[in-house]
UniProtKB/TrEMBL annotation:
<dbReference type="InterPro" id="IPR036640">
    <property type="entry name" value="ABC1_TM_sf"/>
</dbReference>
<dbReference type="Pfam" id="PF00005">
    <property type="entry name" value="ABC_tran"/>
</dbReference>
<dbReference type="InterPro" id="IPR017871">
    <property type="entry name" value="ABC_transporter-like_CS"/>
</dbReference>
<feature type="transmembrane region" description="Helical">
    <location>
        <begin position="279"/>
        <end position="300"/>
    </location>
</feature>
<dbReference type="InterPro" id="IPR027417">
    <property type="entry name" value="P-loop_NTPase"/>
</dbReference>
<dbReference type="InterPro" id="IPR003593">
    <property type="entry name" value="AAA+_ATPase"/>
</dbReference>
<feature type="transmembrane region" description="Helical">
    <location>
        <begin position="162"/>
        <end position="180"/>
    </location>
</feature>
<dbReference type="GO" id="GO:0005524">
    <property type="term" value="F:ATP binding"/>
</dbReference>
<keyword id="KW-0472">Membrane</keyword>
<keyword id="KW-1133">Transmembrane helix</keyword>
<protein>
    <submittedName>
        <fullName>Unannotated protein</fullName>
    </submittedName>
</protein>
<keyword id="KW-0547">Nucleotide-binding</keyword>
<feature type="transmembrane region" description="Helical">
    <location>
        <begin position="54"/>
        <end position="80"/>
    </location>
</feature>
<feature type="domain" description="ABC transporter">
    <location>
        <begin position="338"/>
        <end position="559"/>
    </location>
</feature>
<dbReference type="GO" id="GO:0016020">
    <property type="term" value="C:membrane"/>
</dbReference>
<dbReference type="InterPro" id="IPR039421">
    <property type="entry name" value="Type_1_exporter"/>
</dbReference>
<dbReference type="Pfam" id="PF00664">
    <property type="entry name" value="ABC_membrane"/>
</dbReference>
Amino acid sequence: MAARLVRDLVRVHPKPFVIAVSGAAVFAMCTVASSVVLRWVIDHVIGPRFSDGHVATSSVLIGLGLVVGIGCIRAVGVVIRRTFAGVAHWRIAETLSADVIARLVAQPVAWHQRRPSGELAARAGVDVDASVDVLSPLPYASSTVLLIVVSAGWMLFIDVPLGLFAVCVFPVLIGINLSYQHRVDRHFTAAQDHLGRLSAAVHESFEGVQVVKAFGAERRETERLAIIASQLRDERTAAVLLRGSFDSVLDAVPALANIGLIVLGALRIRSGNLTIGELASMIYMFTLLVFPLRLIGYALSALPHSLAGWARVREVLDEPVMDDPADRVGVAPDGIGVSFRGVAYCFEQDRPVLDDIALDVPIGRTVALVGATGAGKTTMLRLAAGLVGAASGSVATVAGQRAIVLQEAFLLGDTLRENIAFGRTYTDDQIWAALTTAEGREFVAELPNGLDTTVGERGVSLSGGQRQRVALARALVREPALLLLDDTTSALDPSTEARVVANLRVALRDATVLMVASRPSTIALADHVVFLDAGTIAATGTHAALLATNPLYRSLMEAFEVDRGAMAPGADARDVAGDAGSGA
């Protein structure tokens, strides 16, 4: 798995990684060469100076030139390795993040509805960062392998018995590294999973902060996040404790080996089988190898973390893109704006939300969907918008732009212009015309910077009604052939709401409007009313006709009116409207 991980990561941007490995190889060869030069300097410069009292100037210059030259080449290798290792690391991370985001964007809304947003954000963020952690030390680790092979050959060439003693230490150090990796792997995998859960839970809690505060659930949310955080802490602590033990052993083994080399080397010098320069060269080489061997340990310690992150990234990248329900929305027959033919839909098996819905809405008509909470009104809008797919039956709409405006308006922390254009290019005249129809021109004109006013995260600087009108303008500027409104005007006062609906009838006289409504005065403005009860169409007709002929419909309208009349002074009208008008 480790080799496959490295192969897959390097394949993303191979060139900078290969250059980094090449620089590391130059560094490794220069490290061995520096040991050879040290031997030469001791035996031909320092030794003769002590034994003969003098040394040739040419020998000093040659030694100095070798030391400086190899040092400079080694420094160049270090610069190349570090520079291009960083380039490879960040380019690969950038590409992986873009690939994950592209795959998330490619998945339809129905796919996202079954997964926590925070969990998905973690895959493109912390999991990608974790998966590329192994790349930074990898070029150095590869040079260490080369260094071990070449230095082992050099030490055996100098003196076989002493070389064998030094070389035997290498498998011990590598074995310690492998043992550490095997033991710490499960802790890093569990920690990465807990980190993803924590990210999802925090995102969810922040998203629903108003609900949390409204129900006084702050302590419950704090305890929930604390449990996940404690699990993450425990796994990370276990990994750190193992790392501490690993570092201690890795420090002790080379230190003891150096003592052994000095003792054995002194005996070999006394017997005449080794020179002082050769022993110094071997000890210098072995000392230089200690830190690179720790880098192998660092690479191996990062490997479990990277494997855990990579596995979570691959879950997203390897999952096939679901069929987009929008592709299953057909083209309605001539003269029909939206058509439902035997449509059924359920969130859970054996719990249908809609059952055998049959409805044709002519082009240019405004139809209100009315029903109690959970009747299936919002689901019908989502089916028409192509956000979800029908379990059976077919949905067809008029050719052209479809636009849906949800009850809870979502605004970016950007300017009003960007929130309305939403990635497209429109003239100011087009934007102002859309705001005029949505009854938002007046309040936008009064803002300090007009269309260029930044509204803050989620439009926090605007009231609920203002956010709804901006969201409606966002849909209207696209000149949709089918406009879907999910209780979009619930936060507006009745007179403003009536003006908005009247404006829509004028501006969209050739378009079809399908709207969820809960305010009787708004429902009365629709051309036709579709009354839903328990996921089926219970009755259709004008508002006045249904009031006169359908007791259940009349009872629901009376309940809406009673609920509004019972509101305490100063209460937000959208609270009641939202409760009455939100469909399952």
